[in-house]
Amino acid sequence: MRNFSRLALVAGLLAAVFSCSPKNTRIQGTLADGAGKEIIVKMLDVNRFQVLDTVKVNEQGAFSYALNLELAQPEFVYLFYGDRQVASLLLQPGDQVKVATDTLGAYSVEGSEESLKLQKVENAYTSFLRQMNTILSTEENPNAALSRCYVDYYRDRLAYVVTNARSLTVVPVLFQQVNPSLPVFDQATDGLLMRNVSDSLKTLYPESRYVKALEKEAERRINLMDVNARINQASEVGFFDMELPGMDGQKVKLSEAAGKVTMLYFWASTAEQKMFNLDALVPIYEEFHPKGFEIYAVSLNMDKTVWATAVRNQNLPWVNVCDTRGVASPYVAAYGVSNLPMAWFIVDGDIDPEAKVSNAQDIRNYLRRKL
């Protein structure tokens, strides 16, 4: 009986090991008029393609490719003939898929429900873009027709996302664009939709790179909502207020830390910027702080420990806060931070748009005029 129990335990452990092992997934395909040609297999890596392999098409026009996928991590896999995408697949671990395509990209797929959904998603998107282009090229005053076309497509895709919230095919839908500067999902509340969908998908695919990318985009969108709300309230203090944790973990508002003249200073603890702190800012601060000068220094270090170590080692005397969201911070967008370091000056509660400083002497000259 004891031996039986041990065997059962071993069997259970082996089952657990194999259940977590990568699953062999296979694509069996044909390429019409493609005998002797090559198919390039690529995997989507969030926002770029990663080439997996090049597969030879035999004399009968058939090809085959196998890959191992981790459990609970479906992947977007694309087949290319030269530079042309000829099939789009969303493969689950263990899928055995049959693809029939041609060199122009007209394809059919069997054995993968998610791939069939993805095909319909891409066909709908292509049709929408084609319709928009037709309106632009044929309508004398296209704005009204373009608006109707966009609204109809947005509503249709919104319905698709809501009814397929547990399918990874909604991820590319949520990232579709009308053009490079206009996402399809551009409404103020779409960030909340993205977060709800990513929360739903995360229960099924917690380690999926695509779910993590959607979650990150949702956070960015929601941050922008917060930015817009704060901008609408900015007239109360004359500038866009912010609130970030300081060295003790307590949040400090820019409006509460402001002096007669406040330098809002975005930086990161690189060697060059740390030298600027000691060589330029500390002497300036010591000279002008008694006259009403304050610095609200926002570090964009994503590693809070690196920032805190720099502040302690340099004994920086001004208000020090850290935004570990880095360039994804809504404050970066609100203040148009394009490079580091970068400074804005707040004078008597208002942003001074005329302040032009590019070095320590500029800062000193500016403060002499204002204080």
Comma- or semicolon-separated keywords:
single chain; 371 residues; alpha+beta; five-stranded mixed sheet; four-stranded mixed sheet; 11 helices; 17 strands; disordered N terminus
Strand content: 25-35%
Q: How many DSSP-defined strands? A: 17
Could you describe the largest sheet, including whether it forms a barrel? 5 strands, mixed
Average the pLDDT over all residues and give the rounded result. 87
Give the overall shape: elongated
What percentage of residues falls in helices of 4 or more residues? Answer: 40-55%
Secondary structure category: alpha+beta
Number of helices: 11
Strand arrangement in the largest pleated sheet = 15-14-13-16-17
> Helix and strand succession?
HEEEEEEEEHHHEEHHEEHEHEHEHEEH
Q: Which consecutive residue ranges, at least 5 long each, have pLDDT under 50? A: 1-21
Which helices and strands appear, and what pairs or packs with what?
Elements: H1 2-19, E1 23-32, E2 38-44, E3 49-56, E4 62-69, E5 75-81, E6 84-91, E7 96-102, E8 108-110, H2 113-138, H3 143-163, H4 170-174, E9 177-179, E10 182-183, H5 190-202, H6 209-233, E11 243-245, E12 251-253, H7 254-257, E13 261-267, H8 271-288, E14 293-299, H9 304-314, E15 319-322, H10 330-334, E16 342-347, E17 350-351, H11 360-370
Parallel strand pairs: 1-7, 13-14, 14-15
Antiparallel strand pairs: 1-4, 2-3, 2-5, 5-6, 7-8, 9-10, 11-12, 13-16, 16-17
Helix pairs in contact: 2-3, 5-6, 8-11
